[in-house]
Write a structure and sequence with these properties.
about 200 residues, alpha/beta, Rossmann fold, about 15% strand
C-alpha cells in the first residue's frame, strides 16, 4: 500500500480554514498527506466564485504545487466538498496526462443551486475512479438522479450514503435521536468508506 497525496478543495461558501474543512482534513490525514488551498475569489474575500476556467486553473496550480512539495511519484487523490469536488472532476477529466488516481466527492452538486440544471457532463467524461459521499437529504444531489448518471458513466464509481445527511453530510438532531446514532458514527463510517475505496486501489 502506498500513502497518497490528497488535495482537498473547499466548497463555494467557506474557505479551507472552515471548521468543516479542517475537521475532514484531519480525518483524511490518517490516510495520506493532505494539502488544502483556497480558490482566487476566496483569497480575495469575494463571495461569488470565479468562472469555471479560472477555478480549474487554480485547482491545477494547487495540484502542481502539492506534488512539488510532497513528491511527484505519489499517487494523487483529488478530494473536495461540493464545488471543490466538481472542480476536481473537471481537472481529472480534462488532463489526459493527469496523475490523479482517484476522486473523492463530498456532496457532489449534481444540480445547480442557482438554476437547477443537471451537471453530469463531466461525470460522463471521467475515466478516473470516483467515490461519491452523499447525504440522503441533499437537495443538490437527488440520489435517484445520481444513480441514473452513475449507470451511464464510463469511470468506475462507488456511492456511500449518509442517511438523513444534508449537503455537508451532517445529520439533524431529530434524525440522530431516532436512529440512536451520533454524528461521530457517521463521520467514522464515511472515513471507513474512503479507506476501503482507496485501499482497493493500492492506497491508504
Amino acid at each position: 500500500m502506498t500513502a497518497p497525496l490528497i488535495l482537498f478543495a473547499h466548497g463555494a461558501g467557506a474557505p479551507s480554514s472552515s471548521r468543516w474543512m479542517q475537521a475532514w482534513a484531519r480525518r483524511l490525514g490518517a490516510l495520506g498527506d493532505v494539502a488544502t488551498f483556497d480558490y482566487p475569489y476566496m483569497k480575495a474575500g469575494r463571495k461569488t466564485p470565479d468562472r469555471l476556467p479560472a477555478l480549474i486553473t487554480a485547482h491545477a496550480a494547487a495540484l502542481d504545487q502539492a506534488r512539488a512539495e510532497h513528491g511527484l511519484e505519489r499517487p494523487v487523490v483529488l478530494a473536495g466538498k461540493s464545488m471543490g469536488s466538481r472542480m476536481g472532476c473537471h481537472l481529472a477529466a480534462g488532463r489526459p496526462d493527469s496523475p490523479v488516481a482517484a476522486l473523492v466527492c463530498f456532496g457532489y452538486p449534481l444540480r445547480s443551486g442557482a438554476t437547477g440544471a443537471l451537471r453530469d457532463e463531466v461525470l460522463r467524461a471521467l475515466r478516473t475512479p470516483v467515490l461519491f459521499l452523499q447525504g440522503s437529504r441533499d437537495p443538490l444531489c437527488p440520489l435517484d438522479e445520481l444513480e441514473r448518471v452513475r449507470a451511464a458513466m464510463s469511470a468506475p464509481s462507488e456511492l456511500f450514503v449518509v442517511e438523513g445527511g444534508d449537503h455537508s453530510l451532517e445529520v439533524g438532531a431529530r434524525e440522530l435521536k431516532a436512529s440512536g446514532k451520533t454524528q461521530g458514527h457517521w463521520d467514522e463510517a464515511v472515513l471507513a468508506a474512503i479507506t476501503r475505496f482507496l485501499a482497493a486501489r493500492g492506497m491508504a
